[in-house]
Amino acid sequence: MTIRPARADFLDLDRGFAAVNVAVIGDVMLDRFVYGKVERISPEAPIPVLRVDRRTTMIGGAGNAARNVASLGATARLVAVVGPDAAADELRGLFDAEARISGDLAVDPEGGTIVKTRYVAQSQQLLRSDEDGTGRLSPAARAGLLAAVDAAIADAGIVLLSDYGKGVLAPDIVTAIMTRCAAAGRPVVVDPKARDLSRYRGAMVLTPNAVELAAAAGEPVDPADDHAVSRAALGLVRANGFPYLVATRGAHGVSIVGADGSAVHLPARAREVFDVSGAGDTLVAALACGLAAGGSIVDAVQYANAAAGVVVGKLGTATVTPTEVRAAVAGDAEAKSVAAGGAARHAPVFTDAAAAARLTAAWQAEGLKVGVTNGCFDLLHRGHLDVIARARAACDRLVVAVNADVSVRRLKGPTRPVQDQETRAAVLAALADVDLVLIFAEETPAGLIRAIGPDLLVKGGDYTPETVVGADVVTARGGRVMIVPILPGHSTTATVARIAAGGD
């Protein structure tokens, strides 16, 4: 099939995600992460000693694809198989906490739940231990799985097969699923694991990585070579009747190859890579959402590529939100503009505290300290800059909350503000020390501080920590309050008065 050109507004796909329902079928697993520090080598053997700080547990494998579907705003129904064990109970508890995911977990009385444990120090994985199942489903598990598949397909707009090669998507089961999807008219997106891609015949698009592409093609494929990737992908597309194949090539980007021989090569979007765990889950989930929302293959892949670029910058089996995707694409545009000699793009400006909180929560999940300061910032002066600079020096990401026009009038009178809220926000967003601007109309910033839950709250003036609005919220969660003395001789009110009197 011919690949149509991409639209400039491909990000608008996420406006339709709320109406998307994805059936995710595949190998679910429990992902455990053990974080700590390495400060010495064991005297017992030449191995590092990890001093454990914290542990986290997440839904992994096909479950991570479902989590990404949900975090993008769509609804996911996961169909998978677990064992009769404590790990399965833990997975069910994690699913119960996910508002947009339902889990149909068939139990295999002869198998076990897959568990992967990763040991991480200073953002680097030291070791991974795997507890795999048997790789084969019992007759009872197979029957339970296919019954759940029937129910999930009936409600879905698109089907996502997440194959980790652990037995759920064995050839005969895939054939049964593909037959059911064809009868129901459901498009299928596959994240494959098998070398023989013919088992997925009938799928709309497959998303192998460079290693999987080479294995399926039966020949070496240089991921840096567009022509080699296109040739291998086209051979697989034509041999198996797929309309499209999307090859993920790591640092070399993503390639879309159609059955008619057309190809589009997109550059990688990741700026900084911390952890590639689950990046393929993010890409295929975003791709399925984009296609189900009515996007073309190129638009959906562009969105998915941007989403994967965000998630590799996080630690652990991570997910991504539309806000993060939009911010990342905007950041790429900024980088290109600066490289070309243009002006840098401003920090993002929000008017919705909940939306801003989703971005700040993602920063905090990466271990970054988030600070908040607030004010009217009517005529930006040296005193404002001093507070902002000191605040940013004390945290990793700074949110500046600026009073909306209606709020300024309540505080300063009917003649203020001198500049409207959009102008004041744009000026603040242009500052290098500012990472996010949030316009708020409430009388105080208490609500936004509760929503964001910052690690640091900064206020300029002669306050005490106890009298700062929101201080109780911040300190209750282990954060701190910082007071920055106002520089003498710098006041917006005094400046406005001088202007009104005809002064300089």
TrEMBL record:
Cytidyltransferase-like domain sequence ranges: 372-466
Keywords of this entry: ATP-binding, Carbohydrate metabolism, Kinase, Multifunctional enzyme, Nucleotide-binding, Nucleotidyltransferase, Transferase
GO cellular component, one term: cytosol
Active site: 281
One Pfam family recorded for the sequence: CTP_transf_like
Region (Ribokinase): 1-343
Residue numbers binding ATP: 209-212
EC number: 2.7.1.167, 2.7.7.70
Ranges for region Cytidylyltransferase: 372-504
Residue ranges constituting the Carbohydrate kinase PfkB domain according to the UniProt record: 21-323
GO BP: any one term: lipopolysaccharide core region biosynthetic process
Enzyme class: transferase
GO terms of molecular function: ATP binding; heptose 7-phosphate kinase activity; heptose-1-phosphate adenylyltransferase activity; phosphotransferase activity, alcohol group as acceptor
Pathway: Nucleotide-sugar biosynthesis; ADP-L-glycero-beta-D-manno-heptose biosynthesis; ADP-L-glycero-beta-D-manno-heptose from D-glycero-beta-D-manno-heptose 7-phosphate: step 3/4; Nucleotide-sugar biosynthesis; ADP-L-glycero-beta-D-manno-heptose biosynthesis; ADP-L-glycero-beta-D-manno-heptose from D-glycero-beta-D-manno-heptose 7-phosphate: step 1/4; Bacterial outer membrane biogenesis; LPS core biosynthesis
Catalytic activity: D-glycero-beta-D-manno-heptose 7-phosphate + ATP = D-glycero-beta-D-manno-heptose 1,7-bisphosphate + ADP + H(+); D-glycero-beta-D-manno-heptose 1-phosphate + ATP + H(+) = ADP-D-glycero-beta-D-manno-heptose + diphosphate
Family, as annotated: In the C-terminal section; belongs to the cytidylyltransferase family.
NCBIfam families, alphabetized: cyt_tran_rel, rfaE_dom_I, rfaE_dom_II
Record's subunit section: Homodimer.
Role of this protein: Catalyzes the ADP transfer from ATP to D-glycero-beta-D-manno-heptose 1-phosphate, yielding ADP-D-glycero-beta-D-manno-heptose.
Protein name: Bifunctional protein HldE
Species assigned in the record: Tistrella mobilis (strain KA081020-065)
